[in-house]
Design brief:
The complex is a heterodimer.
Chain A: H1 2-11, E1 33-35, H2 46-50, E2 56-59, E3 62-66, H3 75-79, E4 85-87, E5 102-103, H4 118-124, E6 128-134, H5 140-146, E7 160-162, E8 171-175, H6 183-191, E9 198-202, H7 204-208, E10 230-232, H8 239-249
Parallel strand pairs in A: 6-7, 6-8, 8-9, 9-10
Antiparallel strand pairs in A: 1-4, 2-3, 3-5
Chain B: H1 3-6, E1 8-10, E2 14-17, E3 23-24, H2 26-38, E4 43-51, E5 58-67, E6 72-81, E7 83-85, H3 95-105, E8 108-110, E9 145-150, E10 162-168, E11 171-178, H4 186-190, H5 198-203, H6 210-224, H7 232-260, H8 264-285, E12 294-295, E13 298-299, H9 305-330, H10 333-339, H11 347-353, H12 357-362, H13 369-372, H14 393-419, H15 423-428, E14 444-451, E15 456-463, E16 469-475, H16 477-488, H17 497-504, H18 508-512
Helix pairs in contact in B: 6-7, 7-8, 7-14, 7-17, 8-9, 9-14, 14-17
The chains are: A alpha/beta, B alpha+beta.
Chain lengths: 253, 513
């Protein structure tokens, strides 16, 4: 008992102060793309050609990036001859519609959308019970969602809790591109939830199939199965990105 | 047996023309492989079938055996069609590989003791679809027995898999583990590469093993293309990233083990400390899992001396926190009581079925690829082997604890070595291979092994006449070890399943691919 108390004193209080204090992100953090307007050189499609997930499109007004497909690997930025692509420090990536995920060259700074599902906000503003379902991912999204339960993040502070049974859940948070072998289990989990039931797509795979889009073994993400109420881009999303998205869904930021 | 004439012999991370791979008559092939594994102590690193290039409907079986004492890999092949006499009947180390071969190719492995699919992939022949987990399970014909089915969706935030326990009261007589829910078809998607998504697919085979996977792939490409050779400085930094990956995962596992016996202090401390190691990885490359850091030919980013000094300070502080958390765990009798003699995997069983990595070393198998098939920075900077012998949960926890100390010491030395690199050496570590390397040597077979944090990771690639991947085979450590968990549960209380499972902490996606 004394040893445990001594260790507790040694370890100290370590819960981060987000959202009151902005997170400390690493130097090379790849956040929301910052895109330069203006026409690209004729016939240049270097960014499109190198993208592993066809997330980049060259438009008349420069490149566009669909952050729902993007793996944030940064290869497009490295090959762009006019350096029109950069991945900035903006970690607030979550959005409520598929269209909001598409980043284009714009004079206005990105303002994370706040108008989410009103019913969800009213129901779950103080308490969000989540059933996580892993449907074919690489487990990185699961791991970085799981850390929100550790004392470093302590999402319980905001009334967010992971529950074991779908019967106790307000929403499911799905990771992975939805493999053929997980489709039935995913549907059954969703069916077992009391209504209303909300859906969160966490990570590029769940949103669009990610790097597995073309695989016949997967369904290319959640879109075709359930319409998500919250999209959290990333491969995997940073824990702050996930938590910030959940808080916005709850209308708490 | 003369190993050098029967087999093609390669060091770790090397390639040879496919024409040099001996194609043995099947009876010889079978006898030689069984003898090598059961009598000479070689291990099965990979065993797979690829369509024979000149005879439609025929397959070439290719075996990669690890000769740990000679620090070499032994390869052989044989041609089969329709069916062959399973090696598993005489050598259990092949059993999971042969179930995979039968599922992927439709070949019949005669006399296989338990011929069932391992991933429930949909048949390519147009036959009726299969349902994952729907298969015959071993059942006890006794009214007193009962069956417990768990999954695919589990209670926590964890990947899907199905567990079927046959119990008498509280005692588990037999456990079968049925996987495949995470199958994404990675190996098939790699055929025809390298292309723009190959590196990302490899990193996503198992997300918690991104560094080991990317490095395994980079070394395999280096064996096939001079343009992809990495400098010693690049290899040093890859090693640093891999030891950070190992430290993060071992720390997380020990915390989770503490949680499973309701010892909350260490669970809480380790949950936080694991994140520190991930953040150190992010300091190198921006991503907590090291995505995109290891590229063919080198690294994405360099670290300057200021960053290295920061990492050193950070590492020391975190290791002090970790030592405090683990001293408390291993000094608590109620924890040790739960860990000791729980989930025993006997050394003989571990050797017979080919267990690798942490679980293997906990059962007395002195096998660590960093030592037995050294590569990159481990060649002149070896780590100490951390092996135990009891094969219980405690032994698996102790191996992790000792490896955390060994990695910490290694990181200290490697980071110091990082500061001593000249500017030119540092710069040589950078790779500009954002695009696929291409131009791989044609008609070759290449093998690359890594000691990922769970254990041996093996990549084998065959290139076609244009230098494109004709076949890409990944064997994740979990592929070897899931059966070890099933064995460890025999005779155990079913309530001990969570702690036994956590002590192995295997990857579903790494197995399912």
């Amino acid at each position: 008992m004394y040893k445990a108390l001594k260790a507790r004193l040694f370890q100290g209080h370590r819960t981060g102060r987000f959202p009151a204090v902005a997170p400390t992100l690493p130097d090379h953090f790849q956040g929301r793309p910052q895109l330069q307007a203006g026409p690209c050189p004729k016939d240049c499609s270097a960014c499109e050609d190198i993208c592993p997930t066809k997330a980049v499109k060259v438009s008349a007004n420069g490149p566009q990036i669909d952050t729902g497909r993007c793996l944030f690997c940064g290869k497009c930025a490295a090959v762009c001859p006019r350096q029109a692509i950069a991945f900035g420090p903006e970690y607030r990536l979550a959005a409520f519609t598929r269209e909001q995920l598409v980043a284009g060259a714009s004079a206005a700074a990105w303002a994370p959308p706040t108008a989410g599902n009103v019913q969800c906000r009213d129901f779950c503003g103080q308490s969000l019970k989540i059933r996580q379902v892993s449907a074919g991912g690489c487990a990185a999204c699961e791991l970085d969602f799981n850390v929100l339960g550790t004392l470093a993040w302590d999402m319980g502070r905001f009334g967010i809790q992971v529950v074991a049974s779908p019967r106790h859940a307000d929403c499911i948070l799905v990771t992975g591109p939805v493999t053929r072998n997980m489709l039935l289990a995913l549907r059954k989990t969703h069916d077992a939830m009391p209504r209303p039931a909300w859906v969160i797509a966490c990570g590029a795979c769940a949103i669009s199939g990610g790097v597995f889009t073309d695989s016949p073994e997967t369904h290319g993400g959640l879109e075709a199965i359930f319409k998500p109420d919250l999209y959290i881009p990333g491969c995997p999303p940073h824990p702050t990105t996930i938590l910030e998205g959940l808080l916005r869904l709850m209308g708490r930021s | 047996m003369n190993m050098d004439t029967t087999f093609l012999t390669l060091p770790n991370g090397a390639a040879a023309p496919i024409a040099e791979l001996p194609v043995l008559p099947f009876a010889d092939f079978r006898a030689q492989l069984i003898q090598a594994v059961t009598q000479n102590g070689l291990r099965v690193s990979s065993f797979f079938a690829t369509p024979a290039s000149n005879r439609p409907g025929d397959f070439e079986l290719i075996a990669v055996l690890a000769d740990d004492r000679a620090h070499l890999l032994r390869l052989a092949a044989s041609r089969v069609s329709k069916s062959y006499l399973a090696l598993s009947a005489d050598c259990p180390a092949f059993h999971w590989f042969e179930r995979e071969i039968a599922e992927v190719t439709g070949l019949i492995c005669e006399n296989h003791p338990w011929p069932k699919p391992i991933r429930f992939t949909q048949p390519t022949t147009g036959a009726a679809g299969v349902l994952p987990g729907v298969t015959d399970y071993l059942r006890i014909a006794d009214e007193a027995a009962h069956e417990v089915a768990v999954g695919p969706v589990h209670a926590g935030v964890i990947e899907p898999g199905h567990f079927r326990f046959q119990c008498l009261g509280e005692e588990v007589i037999f456990l079968e583990i049925s996987l495949g829910y995470q199958h994404r078809g990675i190996e098939k998607m790699l055929v025809g590469g390298p292309d723009v998504r190959s590196a990302q697919l490899i990193e996503c085979a198992a997300g918690d093993t991104s560094i080991a996977s990317a490095w395994c792939y980079a070394r395999l490409q280096a064996a096939l293309s001079p343009a992809c050779q990495a400098s010693p400085a690049a290899e040093l930094w890859r090693g640093i990233a891999l030891e950070l990956e190992r430290s993060a995962n071992h720390t997380g596992d020990l915390g989770a083990l503490a949680g499973d016996v309701a010892f909350l202090p260490t669970q809480s401390f380790c949950g936080r400390i694991r994140g520190e190691y991930l953040n150190m990885t992010a300091a190198l490359c921006g991503n907590r899992f090291g995505r995109g850091y290891v590229l063919p030919g080198g690294l994405r980013y360099l670290a300057d001396n200021k960053k290295i000094a920061d990492l050193q300070t950070w590492r020391k502080r975190v290791h002090a926190d970790l030592t405090n958390a683990l001293d408390l765990l291993f000094d608590t009798p109620s924890v040790l009581d739960r860990f000791e003699n729980t989930g025993v995997l006997a050394p003989a069983d571990a050797a017979a079925v080919g267990i690798v990595g942490v679980a293997g070393r906990a059962s007395g198998l002195n096998n660590d690829i960093r030592l037995s098939h050294p590569y990159g920075p481990y060649t002149d900077r070896p780590l100490s082997l951390c092996a135990e012998g009891a094969g219980d949960v405690l032994a698996r926890a102790m191996v992790r604890r000792r490896e955390l100390d060994a990695s910490n010491q290694w990181l200290n030395e490697a980071l110091n070595a990082g500061t001593e690199l000249s500017a030119d050496e540092q710069a040589s570590a950078l790779s500009s291979h954002h695009s696929p390397a291409g131009g791989l040597a044609p008609s070759m077979i290449a093998v690359s092994l890594q000691e990922a944090w769970r254990g041996e990771l093996c990549h084998v690639a065959l290139t076609d006449s244009h230098g494109r991947f004709r076949h890409y085979k990944i064997v994740d450590p979990s592929f070897h070890n899931w059966y070890g968990l099933a064995l460890a549960l025999r005779g155990e209380q079913i309530s001990h399943f969570p702690i036994c499972n956590k002590s192995f902490n295997l990857s579903y996606c790494g197995h399912d691919l």
